[in-house]
Design a protein that fits this description.
By secondary structure, the protein is α/β, with parallel strands linked by helices. It has 19 helices and 17 strands. It folds into three domains: 63 residues; 313 residues, Alpha-Beta Complex (Spore Coat Polysaccharide Biosynthesis Protein SpsA, Chain A), CATH 3.90.550.10; 88 residues, no CATH class. A hairpin with a 2-residue loop joins β6 and β7. α1 packs antiparallel against α2.
């Protein structure tokens, strides 16, 4: 059974397996490969040209390159030696904890409304707002590092659309819950409906068929022309109850698609214009926070609570509570370093602590929407396991992409990392934190050291209703998002994400593990998140350049896995980190 053994009669919340036969074959393959590497070394050493011989220096260079790659090969396969796989038991989680599940804060980060279009951003936001999780325990924060009122307007539109989208998703178990992704899929009947696209529909009171179609086996297949008229008032001839539901379901689907397209058109139109109209400006007080001098590098802190989950009158179209939704643009000034995404994440940590203070945090990039509405439950199966859950600082899901070409020219799928490397790291203490699709324990992200005698309490009932108004919370939060707040503090050093490194996520995950915490890699068959991979050579090179530079910087710093991790994390995990830290120096023997 592995981790998560039964205790006090409780069933485990997760299971760990090793796939023994696969591991045996892999180890046999690795041993055979190592024999081949050693034979190459022996050949190079025994056939070295004599002094003054032709090609002596070229031979020496080849020997050096092959020694490097042989050692790197050994390092890589050693880290993959103990691959483990996880599975969760969500039914046991819900049965055991029920309404005592903890609050979850979700961070979505964006920085530029041109590179990251607002419609893409709000699709990610809507996908996590609609998680299959109690809405009163869910809070979603959008960090807009560009400080754009266009992004704020898009989020405002999304908050209105969410009132019908969330109940629609939960009623019909929609997957994925990104509207764009869902409506872009091939047209298929929703769960619980018949295979009939449209049935015999008449205009109320007239008995006249709407539109043209085909009669087959007692059913009228209606063309999509004239559907807007049909939405107003409908009658189904001699309808069995299930047929009536089918018609209503299909019409509701069409209505949701229509609402989404209208919202998308309004947002795109405003973005194309490049400014907020006076009419839109009057619809929400938040627009007054933008001044004429504000730009992406120089603006005040802006925090707006668009949906207050504490407000019992703020409900969706079915009368159910909504998740809290917050817009945040931290203050930026030219004379103060903003520390890129790490600075934004740390500001979100402080602001969310003031507003919702969920003990579990999920952070996702704005281009990586939720593809599985039960991912929160999967992560909590690890955190809330009575036996081992208190040891885990974060649960990392793989980064998967839905825009890859058939041949995947630039290896954007990260297949080796997702399907091999991280399973090996998981067997050695846990994977790297890769910056997106990761559930964190708040206290570990805020600098707390692991103690075997301390077991954090994640169980929580209904969040306490505070008398503090949303306006006061916004005012307090603006101070926490000020650019001077972190001066002479431990933020970016011992608290929050680390500063000063291009791969702030990797160095933060390493420091968390060096404080005694473990991490989990969970790679479900049904992918939890789908995003956008680089599609051009320049984009791929830029991304790998940042990764290689950042990881090499870690190798040369005090956070070198073999120095910082000595005595704190296992040798296998140190070797796993070094695989990526050695990407940059591996370019030299490659060029040779």
């Amino acid at each position: 059974m592995g981790l998560g053994e039964e205790r006090s009669g409780d069933a485990p919340l997760f299971q760990t397996t090793t796939k023994k036969w696969c591991r045996l074959w892999y180890r046999l393959y690795a041993c055979c490969g190592f024999v081949g590497v050693v034979l190459v070394w022996c050949y190079r050493a025994t056939h070295f040209p004599a002094a003054g011989g032709k090609g002596r220096w070229a031979w020496a260079g080849m020997l050096g390159a092959e020694l490097w790659f042989g050692l790197y090969w050994l390092l890589t396969h050693s880290a993959r030696w103990n691959q483990t796989y996880r599975s969760t038991f969500k039914e046991s989680l819900l049965q055991r904890f029920g309404d005592r599940l903890p609050g979850v804060d979700i961070f979505v980060c964006t920085a530029d409304p041109i590179i990251e279009p607002p419609t893409m951003v709000i699709n990610t936001v809507l996908s996590v707002l609609a998680y299959d999780y109690p809405p009163e325990k869910l809070s979603v924060y959008l960090s807009d590092d560009g400080g754009s009122n266009l992004t704020f307007y898009a989020l405002l539109e999304a908050s209105r659309f969410a009132r019908s989208w969330i109940p629609f998703c939960k009623k019909y178990k929609v997957e994925p819950r990104s509207p764009h992704a869902y409506f872009s899929q091939s047209s298929e009947p929703m769960e619980g409906t018949t295979t009939v696209e449209w049935m015999k529909i008449k205009e109320k009171g007239t008995g006249r068929r709407l539109g043209t179609g085909t009669w087959h086996k007692g059913l009228w297949y209606l063309d999509r022309t004239g559907l807007d008229k049909a939405l107003a008032s409908l009658v189904v001839d001699t309808p069995p109850e299930d047929s009536r539901r089918s018609v209503e379901d299909e019409l509701l689907l069409h209505h949701q698609r229509k609402l989404y397209k209208e919202m998308e058109e309004r947002i795109n139109h405003t973005v194309d214009i490049g400014e907020i109209s006076e009419e839109i400006h009057k619809t929400h007080k938040g627009f007054s926070q933008w001044t004429s001098e504000a730009n992406s590098r120089n603006h005040q802190a802006i925090v707006q609570i668009l949906v207050d989950g504490r407000d019992e009158s703020d409900v969706d179209s079915e009368g159910c509570p909504l998740p809290t939704l917050v817009y945040m643009a931290r203050e930026k000034r030219p004379q103060h370093p903003h520390n890129f995404k790490a600075g934004a994440m740390n500001a979100l940590l402080r602001v969310s602590l003031e507003i919702s203070n969920g003990p579990v945090i999920l952070n996702v990039d704005c281009d990586m929407y939720s593809n599985n509405s039960k991912s929160v439950q999967d992560a909590l199966c690890f955190f809330m396991d009575e036996d081992k859950g208190h040891e885990f600082a974060y649960v990392q899901f793989p980064q998967n992409f839905n825009n890859l070409t058939k041949n995947d020219l630039y290896a954007g799928s990260l297949r080796t990392i997702n399907e091999v490397d991280f399973h090996g790291l998981d067997g050695n203490g846990g994977p790297l934190y890769v910056g997106s699709g990761c559930f964190h324990r708040r206290e570990s992200l805020c600098g707390k050291k692991f103690s075997p005698t301390y077991k954090a309490e994640l169980i929580g009932g209904k969040p306490q209703i505070t008398e503090v108004s949303a306006y006061i919370l916004e005012e307090r939060s603006r101070g926490l998002a000020a650019c001077t707040y972190e001066e002479n503090s431990q933020w970016g050093k011992e608290v929050g994400l680390k500063y000063g490194c291009p791969v702030e996520d990797v160095i933060t995950g390493l420091s968390i593990q060096c404080r005694g915490w473990k991490s989990i890699y969970y790679n479900p068959h049904w992918k939890a998140f789908l995003g956008l991979a680089p599609m051009t050579l320049s984009q791929a090179l830029l991304q790998h350049k940042r990764w290689s530079e950042g990881d090499f910087q870690i190798l040369l710093s005090k956070y070198c896995p073999f120095i910082c991790g000595h005595g704190r994390i296992g040798l296998g995990l140190q070797m796993g980190y070094s695989i990526y830290c050695l990407w940059a120096p591996s370019s030299l023997p490659t060029l040779y």
